[in-house]
Amino acid sequence: MRILLIMVLSLLGCSGSIDEPVSYFNVETPRPFGYVNGDEIPQRIVIETRSDISLQPGSLPAKGRINRWLNLNQVTVKQTGQRYQIDLLYQVFYAPLEVKSLTLPGFTVQLSQGEKNINQSVPAWTFTLSPLRELVARQSEQGEYMRPDVPPPLLANTQALYGLSASLTVAALIATYLGYLYGCFPNRLRRTLFKRALRKLAGLSKADMEQALTVVHHALNSLNGQPLFLNRLGEFYRRNPEYLQINAQLGWFFTYSNRYFFSDGMIAIAQDFQQLKDLCEQCRKIERGSR
Amino acid sequence: MNTDTQLTDWREQALQFERQINQTVIGLQPAVRHIILAVFARGHVLLEGNVGVGKTTLLRAVAQGLGGDYQRIEGTIDLMPADLIYYTYLNSEGRPCVDPGPLLKHGDTLATFFFNEINRARPQVHALLLRAMAERSINAFNRDYHFPHIQVFADRNRIEKEETFELPAAAKDRFMMEINIDMPRGDTELDELMFNPRFHDTDRLVAGVANTGIYYRLNELAQTVQQRIQTSPKLHTYALSLWKATHQPQQYGVQLTDVEMPQLLMAGASPRGMSYLIRAAKTRAWLEHRDHVLPEDLQAVFPVCMTHRLFLNPMYGYRKEQLLPELIKGILNQVAAP
């Protein structure tokens, strides 16, 4: 009999919580003091319901202006099973002259069970707001005594700067070399073709006529971008008209070179070598733009 | 008369002959120069070009001017090798007869053999021609016939490809030159060709070419030219570089658009092709009043001697008409001398 009575009483004790549509409800708020103008105040509402009940998102306060001094900046609802976590982020725009008590307005959350609505009220929450400064602001000799915060100290980045400089230097060197390989600096090289040829000729004599002719051929080929022959001089002048003024010397050079390399019995004399050097000097002058 | 004087005389005759051909077939000076080079270097010539641009007239005029016994045959799809060697018929008494065909008719005095539309003939005919061109002899009636003076001129048009047989590589290689004949460019020449009645009757035009009668001396002349015109070691190096570049153009810096250069060529120039090139270059040096060959001589004959000897990978075959001239130009533009 006693056991039966305990069971009946236990069942009666449970019956109330089974019928409750909201099994858990809590409003989590931060500290209720120490706020100033412009502060954001988060508010979290946690609701757990029975399985057939769902939250009506339309019943939550709308994002935007709530009243003259209060804005609701963000409304986030996160649902995990039958647990709703509603995060509200208010922002206060009130400049009190002294510490003042203000209230975040309460509202009613609606839950629906089929066609039936269940209301769960969120109570208003009171907090105090402090002024930013005294009622009568003091003036210092430097001006306004209110000053912005000290900027945060910078992190030490010397090491990173050294690393960056080294990487950029290496990258620039590689890019320059790549540009050189792709022929991006032909003008720079083309401007010193005959300078280098003259330097090589300076170390040669008429006994090295074959080498001397090859040096000049090489310089002309490099200038032309492809091997240059007597019968292609016309095309060469079209691309490099400034060399037309030494047409006679270039004609002599190719005729001489043809005879030297491709026919028998050609003996170089000092005058030929001097003429070759003269030609190279003329080319150097044109290359420098002084002729 | 010493050899130098002889060469000078012959050169004057050759240049006179060239001028005469240029007056008969106008606006084709480069092609005429190449044919003259081939004739005096004793090489066979293949002409390619559009229809009606004067290929046949040019070859007939050259044959007429050279003199010597002349034979002509038209390439057709049903032409068989035997048709070149003999033909059979019933004579007026009703008896079957066998007479020598176009190749054998003149025996060893056959000079110019003109094969018109060669690509219309079957490969069997090409095979017979191979031997006639390379060895200047054929075998018929159980014995060899020799043609010490034979010069084969062949032509084909590049418009029609139906019912034609592409010449095999071996046959092409036996031609010293393949010369493209394009329409004359100048307005004056085109006007002449349209309105001057002289060019309307090709038979009379060709008959007007004076027979120089130099043909049967050509072998001796060509031999003399090849011996007298000198080539220096530097020129040998240049020719060798050109030859190597026809096999591995990428090693000489030749680069064509949208082409993987190592995969471009299946075969480069053959030794026979290079010997033809040097023969033609020596002949050009002789015609240019020189006793030594210059790089420009090789460059002048390189395209006509080499284009038909380079065989592209089949994957580039459909771009042959574009790639081959670019490749030849690229090689000539990249190989330096000295």
Question: Summed up, what is this model?
Answer:
The complex is a heterodimer of chains A (291) and B (338). With 291 residues, chain A is α+β, with helices and mostly antiparallel strands. Chain A is built from 8 helices and 12 strands.
Largest sheet, strands/sense/barrel of chain A: 5 strands, antiparallel
Cα shape of chain B: globular
CATH superfamily of the largest domain in chain B: P-loop containing nucleotide triphosphate hydrolases
Are there runs of chain A of 5+ residues with pLDDT below 50, and where?
A: none
- Assign a percent range to the helix content of chain B: 40-55%
Side-by-side strand order of the widest sheet of chain A: 1-2-6-5-4
* Class based on secondary structure composition and strand pairing of chain B: alpha/beta
Strand arrangement, largest sheet of chain B?
Answer: 2-5-8-1-9
At the fold tier of CATH, the topology name of the largest domain in chain B is: Rossmann fold
CATH class of the largest domain in chain B: Alpha Beta
Question: What is the CATH topology descriptor of the largest domain in chain A?
Answer: Immunoglobulin-like
Query: Runs of chain B with pLDDT <50, length 5+?
Result: none
Series of H and E elements of chain B? HHEHEHEEEHEEEHEHHHHHEHHEHH
- The secondary-structure element order of chain A is HEEEEEEEEEEEEHHHHHHH
Strand content of chain B: 15-25%
